Amino acid sequence: MKPKRIAFLIAALLIIVSAGIYFYYGFLFKEARNIASEKPDFSITAEKLLEQYNSDPKKADVLYLNKTIEITGTVTKETDSVITIENTVFCLFTKKIKEKHLDDKVTVKGKCIGYDELFQEVKLDQCTFNKPNN
User: Residue 74 contacts by C-beta under 8 Å, 6 or more apart in sequence?
Assistant: First the structure.
């Protein structure tokens, strides 16, 4: 091969690799959001949130999906890292829940990941407790 052709191939390869790296870090790779430090986009009761999803799921998704929301209500179910508020909002925590909150009125902040039609629950991910509403 001629030296000019080798130089051209090396330059083309570098451009392709650089474009791939730029595409990966610029578009595909996004750091995880820190929901705990974000200010909630909405504060709503668990019953009102479910009511909105039942009346118009598409409109509710436009409002709440992938948004940080704050939910207030009474804890009706609880496991190591999940609580259910008012039997309608499923809240998945990133860490194990140390204190028991069953039958307590709580305020939880998390990212809305949608409505589960099978269980008729709104799902929240990366949840944290905000403040008790006593």
Answer: 85, 86, 103, 104, 105, 106
- Whose CA is closest to 99, among 85, 84, 114, 80? 80
Pairing of strands 105-116, 68-78: antiparallel
Beta strands in the chain (DSSP E): 42-45, 68-78, 82-85, 89-93, 105-116, 121-129
Q: Which value, in Å, is the radius of gyration of the alpha carbons in the chain?
A: 23
pTM for this prediction: 0.73
134 residues of the chain, pLDDT tens digit each: 688 888 888 888 888 888 777 777 666 656 677 888 999 999 999 999 999 999 999 999 999 999 999 999 999 999 999 999 999 999 999 889 988 999 999 999 999 999 998 989 999 999 999 864 44
Helix (H) or strand (E) holding 83: strand 82-85
**Which pair of tokens denotes residue 51?**
């009511």
Tell which residue, 126, 124, 127, has the closest CA to residue 114. 124
CA pseudo-torsion sign 41, 43, 45, 51: negative
- The structure tokens listed for 45 are 């009761």
